[in-house]
Amino acid sequence: MSKLPTLRIGRHTPKYPILQGGMGVKISGSRLAGAVAASGGVGTIASVGIACDHPMFRGNNYFDINEIAMAEAVKTARAAAPDGVLAVNCMAALTDYDRQVISACEAGVDMIISGAGLPMKLPEYTANFPDVAVVPIVSSVKAADLIVRKWGKQYGKLPDAIVVETPLYAGGHLGATKMENVTDPAFSLEAVVPDLVKYIEETVKADIPVIAAGGIWDRNDIDRAFSLGARGVQMGTRFVCTDECDADDRFKRAYLDATEDDVVVIMSPVGIPGRALRNPFVEKYISGQVESKPCMAACLSHCEYLRSRTTFCIAHALVDAYQGNWDTGLFFVGSNVVKCEKMDTVAGIFRDLVG
Ligand SMILES: Cc1cc2nc3c(=O)[nH]c(=O)nc-3n(C[C@H](O)[C@H](O)[C@H](O)COP(=O)(O)O)c2cc1C
Fold first, then answer.
1. One CATH from 3.40.30.10, 3.20.20.150, 3.30.70.580, 3.20.20.70 for 18-247+341-354
2. Cβ(116) to ligand 1 under 6 A?
3. Which of 19, 20, 23 for a ligand 1 pocket mutation test, highest count of atoms within 8 Å of Cβ?
4. pLDDT category, 162, cuts 50, 70, 90?
5. Distance (Å, rounded) from C-alpha 113 to C-alpha 119?
6. Neighbours of 301 (CB within 10 A)
């Protein structure tokens, strides 16, 4: 197997140009992220809902405990990978986005990776932490351009890397405002990655690596992404069926059992589509009869459920999935879930990818 090129993101150079994508709620916690960082990739802790099973969480202190849980998670992952590269994934759509970014930086994380909305103010929150790399997630050149211009004008800062995540295959919330964009080839990696590389070279005239995400499973997929101009890949779904993944075993079991017919795209209360497994919860939602639980903490800056009560509380649904509750959880997946056939270890996946 040939050696993969070196990926430098800001001041950080992982051994391999492979990022494990942040997966919330708590699917990628300190254990998975620490193991990936220790194996030479970038391990990413998902910040969303990180307070949910903290012993001090009592409902009304959600935002305070998010900060405490974040600091603890970074510390635990760092202990597992003292020399590894660790990221925190913060969704720009979160109410406490600024507090989560700052607490992750204070806890000593190496980079903040941020999507689910455009992270327009991210450099403001990381300004006191020059070692922390800032990495937006986009699905189009247009979105990247908006970020590059705003950051340049307001903060004199460029992204340290840009993740392009294609809605065609990725898991969780998708970078598409409309349902029809989810399958639009204009949002494929083949269409967006080369255009973004060209835009960075010719318009921005800077050295910003592009990282491809969505549907990456094996070394062939990685090599194909690199041939498009990417200098790194981000993978989510493949890391779920590992011993180290932080989710309940029943979450992993659901991945192992999934077939193509089980994968659906639904409109999430965040107002964007999300890819998930068809289960009793999703079936009920599709037929218009989800009985949702009370809002946990007004955790989203835009929440259709809080506004109209017509959808469901996504925080509760994702926590239920993390805890393995098949009937009541929202099980986010990438379309590669059909390739999950056996449990693996993080080290095993890295051996398979890099030899
Ligand atoms: C269970 C699950 C949860 C996810 N949660 C998040 C999240 O909290 N924030 C985010 O930016 N991306 C999230 N993602 C997207 C992943 O980080 C990753 O970029 C994407 O799944 C890559 O595609 P792949 O799964 O085909 O490898 C999630 C994906 C999955 C499967």
1. 3.20.20.70
2. yes
3. 23
4. very high
5. 9
6. 14
CB of 47 closer than 6 A to ligand 1? no
Q: What's the CA gap between 208 and 309, in Å, rounded?
A: 42
The alpha carbon of 99 and the centre of ligand 1 are apart by a number of angstroms equal to 22
Pairing of strands 232-235, 263-267: unpaired
In the chain, where the domains are located? 18-247+341-354, 249-336
pLDDT at position 17:
98
27 CA to centre of ligand 1 in angstroms: 9
Over residues 210-218, mean pLDDT:
98
- For ligand 1, atom 1, the nearest C-alpha belongs to 332
Distance CA 301, CA 283 (A): 26
Contacting residues for 185 by C-beta, under 8 A, at least 6 apart: 168, 191
The pTM of the whole model exceeds 0.85: yes
Going from the Cα of 46 to the center of ligand 1, the distance in angstroms, rounded, reads 9
Could you tell me which of 127, 219, 221 has the C-alpha nearest to residue 168?
A: 221
* Burial category of 2 from C-beta neighbours within 10 Å (exposed 0-12, middle 13-18, buried 19 and up): exposed
Pair of tokens at residue 226: 């690199």
**Spatial CA neighbour of 162 closest among 182, 141, 184:** 141
141 backbone dihedrals φ, ψ, rounded to 5°: -65, -35
333 lines ligand 1 (CB under 6 A): yes
Peptide bond preceding 25: is omega within 30 degrees of 0, i.e. cis?
A: yes
231-287 pLDDT, tens per residue? 999 999 999 999 999 999 999 999 999 999 999 999 999 889 999 999 999 999 999
How large is the C-alpha radius of gyration of the chain? 19
Whether 245 is in the pocket of ligand 1, judged by its Cβ within 6 Å, is: no
